[in-house]
C-alpha cells in the first residue's frame, strides 16, 4: 500500500481553496449523473449543462483529487510521441482519425480560452517543447511536425541553437514546438472548473464516494453512503481510480504510478538561465526528462515510480540527482515537495468510450496526456450524450471494455524495463548523427 500524497503536493500548498460543496444527501434526480470530478467529469458536465440538461456530478473526495489536481500541468496538444495523426488514422479509420487529430490539435487553444473565460490563475500559453535526444528522434519529430502542419496546425521544428536558447540545455538535436501548448497550475484549473460547474447549475457533490450503480426503472441509480442520484443516463469519469466500482473498466487499463517533485525555490537570475522561455519540456527519451517552472520559482517534474515499499524515498533522491544532472545550472537540488498520482494507460495509448449498458458509459481519456485532451474530449462527449452526434460520428469508437492480457505483468513492465530504457536512451544520445 502506497501512502496517499494529494495533500503533500506543491499544488495543494499554493492553490487557494475551491468552492464550498455539499455532500450528497437524500434522493436526487437528474437527466444525467456523472461519477468523478476530474477534468473529464467537469468539462463533460459543463457541456451537458450548456445543452440544457440537468446534471449531477458526484465526487468521492474533492474536485481534482485524482490525477487532475496533482499532475505536472503540461498543456500538450498532441498524443504520446509515437502517435502521430497518421497512426491515429490507421487505428480509427480516415474520417474518425482526422476528426480525433483535429480535436487534439485544437485542445491547447480550447483550454487556454476556457481558463481566460473562467479567470483561472496560473495558465501560461508559453508553448510546449519536445526536444529530440537523438538523430532518429529528430527525424521522427520532423515527420510529425509535417503531419500537423498538413492538418493546418501551427507546429514548428526547432534546430539545436533554438532549443538551447529556449531551454538553456545543450545536447538536443532539435525540438518540436507547439505554440498553442503551455503550462498551468493543475489544481487551480480543477478548482476553477468546479466553480464554473456550480455557476452553470451543475449539482456538484463532494465527499460522496459512489459505492454502487444499479438499474432503476428505465435508468440508473448511483448510490453513496448519504444518498443517491437517479437518472436515465450515468457516466463513470473515474479514470484510473474506478477500482471495485466497475471491475470490467478497471481490468481494461494498466494503472501506472507517477512520481513528482518540486524543488527548492530559485531566484530570477537562475530562472533567466534555465528554461528561460517558460515552455514546459518533455523530451523524446523512453524514460523521458520532463521539467517546468512553477509560479513560485521551483522546478517541477517527475516520472515513473515502482509502487514497492521504501521506493518513494529512493525515487525522491533519484529525481533530485536527475534534475541536477540535466540542469547543472541549478547546482544542488532539494525536493521540497514529493507526491504521486496514478495514470490510466490503455494498450494503444488512445482514449476509449466504453458502453457498459443501456445509458451507462465509461470514458477513459488519460494515458498521461490528459490535461488538454480531457477538455476537448469532455466537450465532444457532452455533445454525444446530449444527442448532438451519433455513435458513428463520435471522435472515438464506442467499445466494450476488454481486459488487458497478463495485466499484473503489464503493470510491472514499465518499471522492470526502466534500466534498459535508460541504457538505450544513453547510447542513442551519444551516437553521432
Ligand atoms: C503525476 C501525474 C502527472 C501528469 N502530468 C500530466 C501533464 O503534465 N500533462 C498532461 O496532459 N497529463 C498529465 N497527467 C495526466 C492527467 O492528469 C490526466 O489525464 C487527467 O487529469 C485525467 O483526468 P480525469 O478527469 O479523467 O481523471 P481524474 O482526475 O483521475 O478524476 C477521476 C475522479 O474520479 C473520482 N472517483 C473515483 N472513484 C470514485 C467513486 N467511486 N465515487 C466518486 N468519485 C470517484 C476521483 O476521486 C477523481 O477525482 C499526469 C498524471 C499524473 C498522475
Automatic annotation (TrEMBL):
Report domain FAD dependent oxidoreductase positions: 31-381
Query: Pfam families under this entry?
Result: DAO
Q: Which UniProt keywords apply?
A: Oxidoreductase
Give one GO term, molecular function aspect.
oxidoreductase activity
Q: Which SUPFAM superfamilies match?
A: FAD/NAD(P)-binding domain
Task: Look up keyword S-adenosyl-L-methionine and say if it applies.
Answer: no
Spell out the InterPro entries in the cross-references.
Answer: FAD-dep_OxRdtase, FAD/NAD-bd_sf
> Superkingdom, according to UniProt?
Bacteria
- One GO cellular component, as annotated: cytoplasm
Tell me what this protein is called. Answer: Putative FAD dependent oxidoreductase
Q: Which organism is it from?
A: Salipiger mucosus DSM 16094
Amino acid at each position: 500500500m502506497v501512502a496517499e500524497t494529494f495533500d503533500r503536493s506543491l499544488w495543494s500548498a499554493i492553490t487557494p481553496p475551491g468552492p464550498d460543496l455539499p455532500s450528497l444527501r437524500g434522493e436526487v434526480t437528474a437527466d444525467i449523473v456523472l461519477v468523478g470530478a476530474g477534468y473529464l467529469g467537469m468539462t463533460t458536465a459543463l457541456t451537458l449543462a450548456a445543452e440544457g440538461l440537468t446534471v449531477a456530478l458526484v465526487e468521492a473526495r474533492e474536485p481534482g483529487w485524482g490525477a487532475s489536481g496533482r499532475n505536472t500541468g503540461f498543456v500538450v496538444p498532441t498524443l504520446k510521441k509515437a502517435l502521430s495523426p497518421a497512426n491515429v488514422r490507421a487505428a480509427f479509420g480516415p474520417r474518425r482519425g482526422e476528426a480525433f487529430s483535429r480535436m487534439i490539435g485544437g485542445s491547447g487553444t480550447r483550454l487556454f480560452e476556457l481558463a481566460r473565460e473562467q479567470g483561472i490563475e496560473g495558465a501560461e500559453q508559453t508553448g510546449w517543447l519536445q526536444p529530440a535526444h537523438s538523430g532518429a528522434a529528430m527525424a521522427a519529430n520532423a515527420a510529425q511536425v509535417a503531419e500537423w502542419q498538413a492538418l493546418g496546425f501551427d507546429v514548428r521544428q526547432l534546430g539545436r541553437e533554438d532549443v538551447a536558447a529556449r531551454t538553456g540545455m545543450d545536447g538536443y538535436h532539435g525540438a518540436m514546438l507547439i505554440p498553442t501548448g503551455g503550462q498551468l497550475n493543475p489544481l487551480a484549473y480543477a478548482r476553477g472548473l468546479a466553480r464554473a460547474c456550480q455557476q452553470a447549475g451543475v449539482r456538484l457533490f463532494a465527499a460522496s464516494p459512489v459505492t454502487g450503480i444499479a438499474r432503476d426503472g428505465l435508468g440508473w441509480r448511483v448510490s453513496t453512503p448519504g444518498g443517491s442520484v437517479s437518472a436515465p443516463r450515468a457516466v463513470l469519469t473515474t479514470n484510473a481510480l474506478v477500482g471495485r466500482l466497475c471491475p470490467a473498466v478497471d481490468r481494461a487499463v494498466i494503472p501506472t504510478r507517477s512520481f513528482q517533485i518540486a524543488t527548492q525555490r530559485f531566484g530570477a537570475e537562475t530562472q533567466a538561465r534555465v528554461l528561460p522561455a517558460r515552455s514546459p519540456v518533455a523530451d523524446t527519451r523512453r524514460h523521458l526528462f520532463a521539467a517546468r517552472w512553477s509560479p513560485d520559482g521551483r522546478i517541477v517534474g517527475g516520472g515513473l515510480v515502482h509502487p514497492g515499499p521504501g521506493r518513494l524515498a529512493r525515487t525522491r533522491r533519484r529525481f533530485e540527482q536527475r534534475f541536477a544532472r540535466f540542469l547543472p545550472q541549478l547546482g544542488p537540488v532539494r525536493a521540497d515537495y514529493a507526491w504521486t498520482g496514478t495514470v490510466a494507460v490503455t494498450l494503444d495509448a488512445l482514449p476509449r468510450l466504453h458502453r457498459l449498458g443501456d445509458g451507462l458509459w465509461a470514458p477513459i481519456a488519460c494515458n498521461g496526456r490528459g490535461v488538454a485532451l480531457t477538455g476537448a474530449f469532455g466537450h465532444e462527449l457532452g455533445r454525444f450524450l446530449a444527442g448532438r452526434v451519433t455513435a458513428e460520428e463520435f471522435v472515438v469508437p464506442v467499445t466494450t471494455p476488454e481486459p488487458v492480457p497478463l495485466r499484473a505483468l503489464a503493470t510491472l513492465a514499465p518499471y522492470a524495463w526502466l534500466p534498459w530504457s535508460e541504457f538505450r536512451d544513453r547510447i542513442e544520445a551519444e551516437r553521432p548523427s
